[in-house]
Design a protein that fits this description.
With 512 residues, the chain is of the alpha/beta class. It folds into three domains: 39-61 and 198-223; 65-186, EIF_2_alpha (Alpha-Beta Plaits, 2-Layer Sandwich); 227-475, Rossmann fold (3-Layer(aba) Sandwich), CATH 3.40.50.300. The chain has 17 helices and 14 strands. The protein has helices spanning 29-38, 40-60, 81-101, 105-115, 121-125, 148-170, 199-224, 231-235, 266-281, 301-314, 331-335, 343-347, 377-381, 384-396, 412-416, 434-446, 488-500, and strands spanning 8-11, 14-17, 65-75, 128-131, 138-145, 180-186, 242-247, 289-294, 319-323, 358-360, 365-368, 399-403, 422-428, 451-459. A hairpin with a 6-residue loop joins strand 4 and strand 5 (138-145). The chain is rod-shaped and about 135 Å long.
């Protein structure tokens, strides 16, 4: 597994990337879209929360009304062109000064006194604004208040007070009338609707901010969440070939076997594709023995090993399924077989393996159950007797599938991986974390195990992490076979009836 290189293998018309550079660039657009699809509930919830906050803020905010008035500044002149030009220039220059005068106590205090307002000039100034457009002699005065009538009254009062203040300030000291005249050209009127809060704007801002916060939270959760959710997450850890993906099926707990599913169901097709991809991945060495393991318990390695063995037998191969999980054996439970005598019985030399193999089903599938649970599983699995037993099984069968314990809790699988042709690592999505997968791969690499590939289990049927298959749907899709429609008890009975018709110890190859 060399980093920085990319290889591809064509399987069933699909091109599967076999490696990615874990030290490559950051997230691309497709990864951001995948994060958004994974966290769409969080994003929608945050957007709705922002929308609700914007609405609540609009409801709780006291309405504010705005009234405005406009004044025109004129210069008294005789009317000649030269005087008019000089007066216009003079008035434009003075307008800015008048604008600055609007919020002064000289203008606002008379308004307070005339209207009987219980505020100071400084407080009233915060509700009054004045401005003038460039190259004009117009002054705009705007007043905001919680009462529309009072806003209009204050605007009228400020305009009248400004006219009086300017007349007083511009009047010559030696007597006479002021050369500047201010006239109201737009009287203030009580506004009909409030200027704030702007409910639409608040709702839009709340929705936008909530949506952005939801996306940020989804990205943050994806950054801190180390759980493996699909193929892209696995690709960030290893460049091992992806042999297949098995979708999560709620009926799998009651009907875990391939033969219990509809022939053309997605679950059945997933194990057939796993079988085919495994043959492609193993084409160079043609190793007969394949060890199936996982990182932690509960990822589905026993069901994967069992169904892979069934799929290989259905393809016409002679297959031996070995339950090498000597701590928590499960193959006998799935297949309804006796576990009292099995692998451990053969390893201690109590019986010959010929007498311990149990035929199952109508195909050439033989099962070597775990036997009695020993006190020293690692020593037994790493012994020369185990190595010799596997060699004998490889000579007698086309394929030997070994269900091994998880890698992280115990060393059994790592020890046993030295005696087999290849290892398939089952990854249970939504359960396994990236650091656990890295530790498992390091454990296999430490003992020099040959990793054939990774099988993803418990993948969602829909969504950004779904794993789809390009197979043809047949008319019988959804119709269960006679075995598939039965329960586990009936399955065991069917196994017994089929096995009874097969002569004892008649193996597909030379006697062991």
């Amino acid at each position: 597994m060399m980093g920085g290189s990319t290889h591809k293998i064509e399987v069933l018309g699909n091109v599967l990337p076999l490696s990615t550079d874990s030290g490559g660039p950051g997230l691309d657009i497709s990864e951001y879209l995948r994060i958004a699809r994974r966290g769409w509930i969080l994003i929608v919830a945050a957007a709705l929360l922002g929308l609700m906050i914007g609405g609540v803020a609009s409801i709780l905010t006291k309405p504010t009304y705005t009234a405005d008035t406009q004044l025109f500044v004129a210069i008294q002149s005789s009317g000649s062109i030269q005087e008019l030009q000089q007066g216009n220039t003079f008035s434009q220059a003075r307008v800015l000064s008048y604008v600055k005068t609007v919020d002064s106590p000289a203008v606002l205090q008379p308004v307070i006194d005339s209207l009987g307002l219980d505020v100071s000039a400084e407080e009233l100034a915060t509700h009054v604004t004045a401005n003038s457009e460039n190259n004009t002699v117009l002054i705009n005065i705007t007043v905001s208040d919680h009462s529309p009538v009072q806003a209009a009254a204050i605007a009228k009062g400020v305009a009248a007070s400004l006219i009086s203040a300017v007349d007083t300030l511009e009047k010559p000291k030696n007597g006479g009338s002021s050369p500047v005249s201010l006239s109201i050209i737009k009287p203030a009127s009580a506004p009909v609707s409030p200027s704030s809060p702007n409910t639409r704007l608040n709702l839009a801002l709340g929705l936008l901010i909530g949506f952005g916060a939801g996306i940020g939270a989804a990205i943050f959760r994806s950054a801190v969440d180390t759980r493996l959710r699909g193929e892209p997450d696995v690709r960030m850890v290893t460049d091992a070939p992806l042999l297949g993906g098995i979708a999560f099926d709620q009926d799998a707990e009651k009907k875990p076997l391939l033969t219990q599913a509809a022939p053309q169901s997605p679950r059945a097709e997933s194990f057939r594709q796993l079988r085919t991809n495994l043959q492609f991945a193993n084409v160079s060495s043609r190793a007969k023995s394949v060890l199936i393991t996982s990182s932690v318990p509960g990822e589905g390695k026993s069901t994967t090993a069992t169904n892979l063995a069934i799929a290989l037998a259905q393809a016409g191969q002679s297959v031996c399924l070995v339950d090498a999980d000597l701590r928590r054996p499960a193959v006998n439970e799935y297949l309804g077989l006796d576990r009292n005598a099995g692998l451990t019985t053969a390893l201690i030399g109590a019986e010959d393996v010929n007498d311990l193999l149990q035929p199952w089903g109508s195909d050439n599938l033989y099962v070597l159950t775990a036997g009695q649970i020993p006190p020293n599983p690692s020593e037994l699995l790493g012994s020369e007797d185990m190595k010799e037993l596997l060699s004998r099984l490889e000579e007698a069968f086309d394929s030997v599938i070994i269900d091994a314990p998880p890698l992280l809790p115990v060393t059994d699988a790592a020890v046993l991986s030295q005696h087999v042709g290849g290892v398939v690592l089952v990854v249970g999505v939504q359960k396994l974390r990236k650091q656990d997968l890295e530790r498992s791969l390091s454990a296999l690499d430490l003992v020099g195990a040959r990793i054939l590939g990774v099988a993803l289990n418990r993948l969602p049927a829909k969504g950004p992490d779904a794993y789809s298959y390009g197979y043809y749907t047949q008319k019988g899709l959804g119709q269960t076979s006679s075995i598939g429609s039965s329960n586990r008890t009936a399955m065991r009975k069917g196994h017994s009836d089929q096995s009874a018709t097969r002569p004892a110890n008649k193996f597909p190859a030379a006697k062991l």
